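DM from R.C. (forwarded with permission)

"hey, sorry to bug you on a friday — could you get me a structure for this? deadline for the figure draft is monday and I only need the backbone to look sensible"
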Amino acid sequence: MDLDWPGCRNVRDVGGLPTGDGRVVREGVLIRADSLQYLTADGVEAVRRSGVARILDLRGDGEVAIAPTPFTGTALAVRQRLVDPADPDHGQPTIVEACTWMLDQRPELFAAAVKAIADEPDGAVVVHCHGGKDRTGMVVALALSVAGVPEDEIVADYYLTQSRLAGWLAEQLAEEPDASKHPEMIEFRDTRAESIVAILRHLDEKYGGPEAYLLHGGLTAADLRQLRARLVA
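My reply, with the result:
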């Protein structure tokens, strides 16, 4: 369900997605968003009215320093970067390779992000990065997989971001006069369903699936049960 937070282009509650056992993800528990740095004053009020209990910012230190959100440094905000500053520049040529590199490099950071969703006792957890597509998409996909949401529903949710950010991508391309840079911009800023499919196949083939990956990153079976209990009605 799309949410109207003025200043955000890509924000929605994933509640209502079906699980494989006939139940659904609860509404008002997990919200995915692009960076809250663009929120207007009305947008900030909309966030506060949405019952948000935790805002999980997946951006790196440099990103946050340049563009803090209205909630950065407040009691609501939790920082959980997905790449360690000590990690080498991955320089991967495709978005799928960049994402799988992050997953392989720092499973403990992805596990910590998912645990931050599981551990919030009440209210909605907002997960965001910059565009709300790749880092946010991976963390939300991991959480939804644990909740039992079928892969086709996870892929469909991920793909919704393409239409939400299409206008923004068009603006960025129009502002870049060097057309030779456009293919790389599209590669890393578009949101294609096949990208998350490839990422999920990587988790299956290398780790045995999202749950096994999270256990590899340090989550416990109790953490996974707690996440399911939190997300599923």
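R.C.: lifesaver. Residues 12-230 form a domain with the Protein-Tyrosine Phosphatase; Chain A fold (CATH 3.90.190.10).
me: no worries. The mean pLDDT is 92.
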